[in-house]
Amino acid sequence: MAIIPIASELSKKAYADKTKYDAREIAHAATDEIEKEFFQAIANYKDKIDQTEFCVVMVIASDPLINNLRRRKFYCWPYLPSPRPNQTVLLYNKELDQITKRLWVLPNPATMAELATSSLVVCKDYQSMRDWCVAFFKGTFWDFIRYQHDIKMLSQEEYFKLHRDELLKLGVDVANPGASESFDFSKIQINDIEHANQPVSL
């Protein structure tokens, strides 16, 4: 039986690795891996969501104890999720059995703020991201996304409002759909984590 290394072991190994890597090779490898995860999420949710189109979401989160660790979470929702930093949202069509649109990609908070407020001209590859960031800070995000992609999908808040009675019967907390249960970090001591405060440079 194979032994799966824990996150702190991988962090320690990455910190000790002094190899110089090609950034393009890393990006291509990461893209291939992320694509597989998107389709795994689709396979997990496809039969649970009773509508033709739904959102496939990836969120990147930092670990509060291990600085050089990033966690990626993949899931699917029948509505447009609330926008947040480090988030990618795609649109999947069951009938076509394919991802049909990249709805938005939001970077980290500092980059979002810089893109939204800078008067500098950005390259073509970043123009869409800048538009999404501007709409986010202006409070016109849903209107812009629907206009840009010619869709009418409801937002998370609109979906919960429309299906309120149905969701209450299922025991869903409609009053605060975005809330999540926080982890009790008092269960972990800093001594349990090796290299907690030492970032990795590639």
Sheet-strand content, in percent, reads 15-25%
Q: Give the oligomeric state.
A: single chain
| Class from secondary-structure proportions | alpha+beta
Biggest beta sheet summary: 4 strands, antiparallel
Tally of contiguous helical segments: 7
Task: Please bin the fraction of helical residues.
Answer: 25-40%
Tally of distinct domains: 1
List low-confidence stretches. 21-30, 177-202
Basic shape: globular
Radius of gyration: 20 Å
Number of beta strands: 4
Structure description:
- By secondary structure, this protein is α+β, with helices and mostly antiparallel strands.
- It has seven helices and four strands; from the N terminus they run H-H-E-E-E-E-H-H-H-H-H.
- Strands 2-1-3-4 form a four-stranded antiparallel β-sheet.
- Helix 4 crosses helix 5.
- The protein is globular, with a radius of gyration of 20 Å.
Task: Write a compact overview of the structure shown.
The protein has helices at residues 7-16, 23-45, 109-117, 124-138, 141-149, 156-162, 164-169; strands spanning 53-62, 70-77, 87-93, 98-106.
Q: What topology does this entry show?
A:
Layout (H helix, E strand, L loop, with lengths): L6 H10 L6 H23 L7 E10 L7 E8 L9 E7 L4 E9 L2 H9 L6 H15 L2 H9 L6 H7 L1 H6 L33
Helix pairs in contact: 3-4, 4-5
Feature tags:
alpha+beta, 202 residues, globular, 17% strand, single chain
